[in-house]
Amino acid sequence: MKPYILVIGSSNTDMVVKADRLPAPGETILGGTFLMTAGGKGANQAVAAARLGGDVVFIVKVGDDIFGRQAVQSFTEEGIDTGHSIIDPVNPSGVALITVDAKAENCIVVASGANANLMPGDLYKAEDKIKNASLILMQLEIPLETVEYVAELAAQNNVRVILNPAPACALSDELLSKVSIITPNQKEAEMLTGVRITDKKSAETVAELLAEKGIETVIITLGANGALVFHGNHFDWVAAPVVNAVDTTAAGDVFNGALAVAVSEGKNLEDAVLFANTAAALSVTKMGAQASAPTRREVESFN
Ligand code: RIB
Q1: Residues 87, 92: Cα–Cα separation, whole Å
Q2: 249 near 106, Cβ under 8 Å?
Q3: Which of 14, 93, 183 best tests ligand 1's pocket when mutated (most atoms within 8 Å of CB)?
Q4: Any idea where the domains of the chain sit in the sequence?
Q5: Beta strand ranges found along the chain (DSSP E)
Q6: What single-letter DSSP state applies at residue 125?
Q7: Is the pLDDT of residue 114 over 90?
Q8: Would you say 240 and 227 are in contact if contact means Cβ atoms under 8 Å apart?
Q9: 107 vs 84: CA distance, rounded Å
Q10: How far apart are the first and last CA of the chain?
Q11: Are 36 and 15 within 8 A, CB to CB?
Q12: CA-based R_g, the chain, Å
């Protein structure tokens, strides 16, 4: 069987407005043009991995509506195996409302719809896909019990799991002990450990605390400041390329998709994170989530 990366996660349609700044509570501001584009952390990661040359199987649950059908069709056009995707007859496809400010920062509200209904029972038919994956990549826009079920099955079958703990929520030690690589951003790492990151030292402390849960590799992504890697009792700071950012939406997703590809190709950790940092940096130079995921050629020709 050909090795493949299994991504299990969400798909959303993103409704994006660029504005000078993010609105305060109760405030209406006038923004720029409206963009409707494909998103969802799981889908963004699956598409990023496929564009970078990964053989990707994506398990997703969408509504029985135009958004869901379009999404699954576009995954297929990206060369992703969607044979195990599920149509939810009751709940609509996920939607995200996104505002992006002049500094390329965003705020996002998600109506999860069918994503919140992707339950372990939906995956029973895909058990063999889980057991035989070369790597599994998950995030937290689907129910935690589903993530826990997959991590358990993966652990029983010695399949490595990359967990991108986004959006952040409390995670059990049991789940964390089954994760091979965890990839929080600064806020997620702080939430998982209860420790604030204010400088390099505190970031390293946070990485150590996560590793103590039994996670082999901790990668804290720090946007323009690159990424901190903690593996085998060793810290490595991997710089991010300097780019002109217009929209940071999905930068973390592109990082994770790229990381999964690089790790499954057997790149060493430092090279894998450098590859992922470059892919993420390229993604912030364009608007949109999946719309901004770069190709392999774009990453390799970037310098
Ligand atoms: O990580 C970015 C993604 O978060 C967006 O595409 C949006 O759909 C939300 O899931």
Answers
A1: 10
A2: yes
A3: 14
A4: 5-300
A5: 5-8, 12-18, 34-39, 56-59, 61-63, 86-88, 94-100, 106-111, 135-138, 161-163, 181-182, 217-221, 227-231, 234-238
A6: G
A7: yes
A8: yes
A9: 31
A10: 36
A11: yes
A12: 18
Token pair for 216: 């082999």
Question: Rounded CA gap, 253 and 196, in Å?
Answer: 23
The phi, psi pair for 88, rounded to 5°, reads -90, 115
Write down the pLDDT at residue 82.
98
288 CB within 6 A, ligand 1: no
CA distance 46 to 152: 21
For the segment(s) 5-300, the CATH number from 3.40.630.10, 2.60.120.10, 3.40.1190.20, 3.40.50.11320 is: 3.40.1190.20
> By alpha-carbon position, which residue is closest to atom 9 of ligand 1?
40
Helix axes 41-51 and 251-264, enclosed angle (nearest 10): 50
% of the chain beyond a pLDDT of 90: 98
Give the pLDDT confidence of 215-272 residue by residue, as tens digits.
999 999 999 899 999 999 999 999 999 999 999 999 999 999 999 999 999 999 999 9
Closest CA to 162 of 8, 1, 3: 8
Q: Which residues partner with 96 through β-bridges? A: 14, 110
> DSSP alpha helices (H): ranges in 115-228?
127-131, 144-156, 173-176, 186-193, 200-211
**Which residue's alpha carbon is nearest to atom 1 within ligand 1?**
250
Pocket test for ligand 1, best of 37, 106, 249, 255 (most atoms within 8 A of CB): 249
> Residue 17: what residue type?
V
